[in-house]
C-alpha cells in the first residue's frame, strides 16, 4: 500500500538534515516526466547505523497509523525495498515555513501587527485538534514546539516531524542528545517518562511561545538551571500579549501532577471559546 516507485521521484534540493536522515524537496513525476506534485523526501544517511535504520522503520510504522487530518503532515509513501530507505511526506506550500519563523518575523515588524490574538488562537485550535487526533491513536509527539509546526500560505497549521512521534506502548525511557528540556514536564526531566499529559505540558509552553511571538522559554537560564527551576515549582511568566484567562489555561497545562492537567479535547474546546 505505501511502497512508492523510486523512479517517479526527482530530487531537487536538500532542505533539512537530522542525526540520521536528510530531507529533500522532490517532485513526483508521471510517465511523461512532467512535475505533478512537490513532496518532501526523508532519506536515511549512508553512514547510518543498524539502530538508525530500525528507528527510521519504526517511525514509518507510526506515521502509517495516521489517516488524513488537515493539521498533520501526511505520509504519501515510502521506498523500503531498495536503497536508500526513504519516506515521502507532504510538502507545505510556500516552503518549509515554521510557526516559530512566522512568530519571530512578526516580532521583528511590530508596526504591522497582523498576528492578532484571534489569529494566534486559530493556530492553537488547529494544533490542539492535531494532537487530539494523535492521542486518539495512542501516539505521543517527542518534541511538541513551534519549531515543529509548519504554516501554509493560507495560515493552516500542520504538525510535522512525526518521525519524532512514538507509539505510547513503545516509548523510550532514555534521554537523547536532542531532548527538548525547555518543553518538558517535571516527570520527564530525569527519567524521560512520556505520556499524553506530558504533551499537554509542552502544548502550554507552545502557547507561551505564541504569545511572546517566538520567545525562548526560560531564556535567562541554562538547561541545568531550567531543570532545577521547574522541579522547584517555577513556571514561565505571563506574556504581555495574552489575557488572564488564556494564561490560566497555560498554567493548567503546567500542573505538577499529570492526571490533573487537561486533555487535548478540553484544550480544543477552550481555544474555540476564547
Automatic annotation (TrEMBL):
One Pfam match, given by its short name, reads PK_Tyr_Ser-Thr
Subcellular locations according to the entry:
Membrane
Residue ranges spanning the membrane: these are: none
Keyword list (alphabetical) reads: ATP-binding, Magnesium, Membrane, Metal-binding, Nucleotide-binding, Receptor, Signal, Transmembrane, Transmembrane helix
Chief subcellular site?
A: membrane
Q: GO cellular component terms? A: plasma membrane; receptor complex
GO terms (molecular function) for this protein are: ATP binding; metal ion binding; transmembrane receptor protein tyrosine kinase activity
Enumerate the SUPFAM superfamilies for this protein: Protein kinase-like (PK-like)
Respond yes or no to whether keyword Lipid metabolism is given for this record: no
One of the GO biological process terms: positive regulation of MAPK cascade
Which residues are involved in binding Mg(2+)? 161
Which InterPro entries does the record match to this protein? Kinase-like_dom_sf, Prot_kinase_dom, RTK, Ser-Thr/Tyr_kinase_cat_dom
KW Ribonucleoprotein (keyword) present = no
Q: Where is the Protein kinase domain?
A: 9-274
Q: What is this protein called?
A: Protein kinase domain-containing protein
What species does this protein belong to? Answer: Helobdella robusta
